Amino acid sequence: MFEKSLLAHKRILVTGGGSGLGAAMSHRFAELGAELLICGRRSATLDETAAQLRAAYNAKVHTFACDIRDANAVADMMAAIWQDGPLDILVNNAAATFIAQSEHLSARAADAILAPTLHGAMYCTLEAGRRWIESDHNGVVLSILSTSTITGRAFTMPSAMAKSALLAMTKSLAVEWGPKGVRLVAIAPGPFPTPGATGQLHPEGRDSGPAARNPLGRVGEHSELANLASFLISDQAGYINGEMVVQDGGAHLRSSGAEDLLHWTDTQWAAQRTARAKS
Ligand SMILES: CCCCCCCCCCC/C=C/C(=O)SCCNC(=O)CCNC(=O)[C@H](O)C(C)(C)COP(=O)(O)OP(=O)(O)OC[C@H]1O[C@@H](n2cnc3c(N)ncnc32)[C@H](O)[C@@H]1OP(=O)(O)O
Ligand SMILES: NC(=O)C1=CN([C@@H]2O[C@H](COP(=O)(O)OP(=O)(O)OC[C@H]3O[C@@H](n4cnc5c(N)ncnc54)[C@H](OP(=O)(O)O)[C@@H]3O)[C@@H](O)[C@H]2O)C=CC1
């Protein structure tokens, strides 16, 4: 599909690159010649993925145990990255969400979603962008968002807010930083099952229908998202700036994906909260 050297010599940081869609993108980027830098909170997960990337593609891989909710930790990670040379591409992929009735969200619960999803991605973008601009080095920021930026989404309101804010960041900085050589793009994925997303969004008792509700009758393949991401961060997409590409099989044209939860009873929601408290 692509020239094997599409991402050769590119140094790419993927937040949350140790698991789920972040790991899928990291695999494809490494296959296309990139040097990978992956971060997350769990060192063991990062080390496992890094070993796979080295074994499969002979890739150069660095891992950073970094909680992106901590602005100082992000600054330290970026300083460490830049010691070996400039980064070329940042992929804002790490995020958190869970389903809940919004009237039951405590401030801490809302912050548990906003802190990594919005603030963490913004800290990473500002730290990378500042360095690119200071050193006159071109850069690309790809943010993994959601179709909730278009539809909103009941029962995952803080995630929808965070993703919408990151779309505003993408559009705003495309104009502000474009003249300085920094390009920003985004993907809005539909359902691409991962243990993280399925665990948070599809607990026991929820209908298992993202495939059935999809106009194409299926969920996304991780390789499909990884290929779109590879194109958008590559020089081949050099004239795309400030845009979000939706990759959801057309699902958001039909539903935000949360309507089945409108039929949940308060008893079901109470059971959901109890199950979480026990787990
Ligand atoms: C199959 C796919 C279907 C797709 C459908 C269509 C498309 C959907 C698009 C969705 C877009 C976004 C998707 C994603 O982001 S998927 C990624 C999911 N992955 C993760 O969330 C991984 C990271 N997760 C975490 O770190 C944790 O799970 C958590 C989010 C909870 C954060 O952990 P943290 O340690 O920070 O939080 P605490 O445990 O300390 O709790 C803090 C407060 O939050 C309250 N809380 C926690 N969990 C819940 C819950 N499930 N419901 C309500 N409240 C919750 C907790 O009680 C604390 O508050 P209090 O102190 O006030 O009690
Ligand atoms: N899967 C899907 O269907 C969809 C996913 N998306 C988006 O795609 C992206 C990836 O989702 P998915 O792969 O399913 O999610 P996962 O839960 O599988 O992965 C999330 C990753 O983010 C990392 N992470 C979470 N919090 C932090 C933090 N505070 N600091 C650093 N790293 C963190 C996790 O690592 P660790 O726990 O070690 O910190 C993990 O590697 C997200 O932005 C999500 O919103 C959007 C729409 C649909």
UniProtKB/TrEMBL annotation:
Its EC number is 1.3.1.38. Pathway: Lipid metabolism. It is an enzyme of class 1 (oxidoreductase). It catalyses: (2E)-decenoyl-CoA + NADPH + H(+) = decanoyl-CoA + NADP(+); (2E)-tetradecenoyl-CoA + NADPH + H(+) = tetradecanoyl-CoA + NADP(+); (2E)-dodecenoyl-CoA + NADPH + H(+) = dodecanoyl-CoA + NADP(+); (2E)-hexenoyl-CoA + NADPH + H(+) = hexanoyl-CoA + NADP(+). Residues 194-217 are annotated as: Disordered. Signal peptide: none annotated. Its main location: other. Gene3D superfamilies: NAD(P)-binding Rossmann-like Domain (3.40.50.720). Keywords: Fatty acid biosynthesis, Fatty acid metabolism, Lipid biosynthesis, Lipid metabolism, NADP, Oxidoreductase, Peroxisome, Phosphoprotein. It is found in: Peroxisome. Participates in chain elongation of fatty acids. Catalyzes the reduction of trans-2-enoyl-CoAs of varying chain lengths from 6:1 to 16:1, having maximum activity with 10:1 CoA. Has no 2,4-dienoyl-CoA reductase activity. Interacts with PEX5, probably required to target it into peroxisomes. This is Peroxisomal trans-2-enoyl-CoA reductase. It comes from Tardiphaga alba.
